[in-house]
């Protein structure tokens, strides 16, 4: 279940994806498959080849992409991998959200 997402953020994420950019969107998220994790970062791109290459750079497998018919295919990043990749991508504003939301960035 997703929440804590601003419409403006979602629109900007979709616009970047539509333009063929690698786009990041972090928000609250609860999923029983990932107990203790409170946020997710969705990393999408309309250019699947570009998204796959980006994922491989971070050790992500192409089969982990959530392939969407609506054109917004993406990786879901949670937990330690989420924090590690956001640090590598220098997206400190996303990491700051962990602290604001009460997440420990090193463990979920």
UniProtKB/TrEMBL annotation:
Stated name of the protein: YneQ
Species whose genome carries this gene: Cytobacillus oceanisediminis
């Amino acid at each position: 279940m997703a929440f804590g997402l601003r419409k403006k953020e979602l629109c900007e994420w979709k616009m970047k994806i539509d333009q063929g950019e690698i786009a990041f969107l972090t928000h609250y998220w609860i999923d029983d498959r990932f107990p203790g994790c409170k946020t997710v970062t969705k990393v999408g791109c309309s250019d699947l080849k570009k998204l796959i290459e980006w994922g491989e750079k971070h050790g992500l497998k192409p089969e982990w992409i959530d392939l969407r018919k609506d054109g917004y295919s993406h990786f879901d990043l949670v937990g330690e991998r989420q924090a590690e990749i956001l640090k590598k991508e220098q997206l400190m504003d996303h990491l700051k959200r962990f602290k604001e939301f009460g997440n420990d960035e090193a463990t979920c």
